[in-house]
Amino acid sequence: MINKVVTDAKTALEGLTDGMTLMLGGFGLCGIPENAIEALLDLGVKDLTCISNNAGVDDFGLGLLLQKHQVKKMISSYVGENAEFERQLLQGELEVDLIPQGTLAERIRAGGAGIPAFFTPAGYGTEVAEGKEVREFDGKKYLLESWLKADYALVKAWKGDTAGNLVFKGTARNFNPMMAMAGKITVAEVEELVPAGELDPNTIHISGVFVQRIFQGKDYEKRIEQRTTR
């Protein structure tokens, strides 16, 4: 069985250059590839197109890449927690494609499944529909949406094995699995890395066939985006 383990995040990102399209897993700050984002900062790559549910916060997650102006375009569904994102957008420094969350998820899933386009009712009659083909099915209007794919998909899993099989936990299972399928090169960082064959096949969420590189992550902060107490 192929061993896909690399030593660290920097090694896992070899070949990643300016102008590439990246998918970055997670939901809010949950399940984001913290180590891979730090490696992107160190690499200094720029003019990136980043596909992610959201843009992190000002001092964590994708917000760190925005601070260093490494991101040219964001393709997201929610961006409300990042003041620097707002500033760059209003100043014309950042391109933004804001997509309904379900549509974003399905476009990513379609990219991994090899489906180039599909119809959805979400966004019809709004600015989202501008320039898109509209068809009627059973008396209802639908928009044509295209797949999303990436040069690199950077995902974070709870557990993984040396063959690249992945298990996600809780909310981290939202976008990470489908992004893992939609990248030309998928890099997985995991909290726990085990030998191939040790994971229960019935618990595996993503097969190692979709993962090219995997490494043991470290020093996870696992920040909470909005902490509410009483």
Automatic annotation (TrEMBL):
**Which keywords accompany this UniProt record?**
Transferase
User: In terms of domain of life, where is this protein from?
Assistant: Bacteria
Family indicated by similarity: Belongs to the 3-oxoacid CoA-transferase subunit A family.
The identity of this protein, by name, is 3-oxoacid CoA-transferase subunit A
Q: Name one Pfam family in it.
A: CoA_trans
Which InterPro entries does the record match to this protein?
A: 3-oxoacid_CoA-transf_A (IPR012792), CoA_trans_fam_I (IPR004165), CoA_transf_BS (IPR004163), NagB/RpiA_transferase-like (IPR037171)
Q: Name one GO molecular function term.
A: CoA-transferase activity
Asked if the record carries the keyword Chaperone, the reply is: no
